[in-house]
Specification:
- The protein is mostly beta strands.
- The chain has one domain (5-308): Neuraminidase (6 Propeller).
- It is 8% helix and 40% strand.
- The chain is built from three helices and 22 strands.
- The chain has helices at residues 5-19, 206-210, 254-259, and strands at 36-40, 49-54, 60-65, 72-77, 83-88, 96-103, 110-116, 127-133, 141-142, 146-151, 159-164, 169-174, 184-190, 196-197, 199-204, 219-224, 230-235, 238-243, 263-267, 274-279, 286-290, 304-308.
Length: 312
Amino acid sequence: MKTNRFTKQIVAISLTGLISSVAAAAPLCSSWSIPEDKGRLDNSVQDETSGMALSRVYPRFYMNNDSGDGPNLYVVDEKTLQPKKVSIQNYDPRDAEDLSLGPCPKSEETCIAIADIGDNSRKRSTIEIVFVKETATFKSSVAPVAHITAQYPDRAHNAEAFALLPNGEFLIVTKEDGGKAGAATVFRGRTDVDGQTLEKIGTIDVPAITKDNLLGGIVTGMSASADGRKLLLLTYVNAIELSFDPSAKTLPTTQELAARGEIRLVKINVLPQQEAITYDRNDLDFYYTTEAERSFLIKKSKAPVLKVQCLK
């Protein structure tokens, strides 16, 4: 059987687990740089960026706008930040909130998965994820290789954080902002199953980590490392890095992760409506940006893309 880099990584994780009953946690960064401005997005095209992922093989980002933009993916040059708009065929999102790079469903190839998971009114019966194959070049319109629907096991949730894992699974972290921030719920699903019911695997007490039950306690974006052993969460005020075990059935409690030193709070420059974050290729540094153009706070400004480096 042929394997891609994502499969090889998860096999390596599994072999490690056989050797040791307690797998070592992924090392987290302990010191971060001041965010560096890498340029500005073209807000005439991208006026509400809510998801981003950095290609691991091509010099570009993938981004998506928030609700109301239509079935579009933006292929953004890594240096110039100039976007190319790509329309996704047979796709009509209600509120696309995040995207992620990882293995395509039932395939060895790499896909960009766009997560239509936003639900401010918390009334949706299903959510949808569409998969577009990553290619060297993109035409102005592409057909998705797959799309799946899913529902939560309990009730409707609003969410803006989504990440693919190398083992064919994905994670969704909810946005708990009803008056004040609450603990975010983490759900897991499979990329190759349509019409599935997601599995609740735990919660992350973001307000306890950030000591903020308002904007700093609300999760707005997520990225996973290539091996799936680290998660990076974005809130409206800061970022959080935490260890994750893709093979575990449940997520440890926030208190357990903190006691083991497997959570890091990252102080960053606050951008109004910051909702998009991605690891760099080294899975140490990261980038983030904002909806900006539709934010009343900086309506006349172009959205900056900021990079934060891991110092140690």
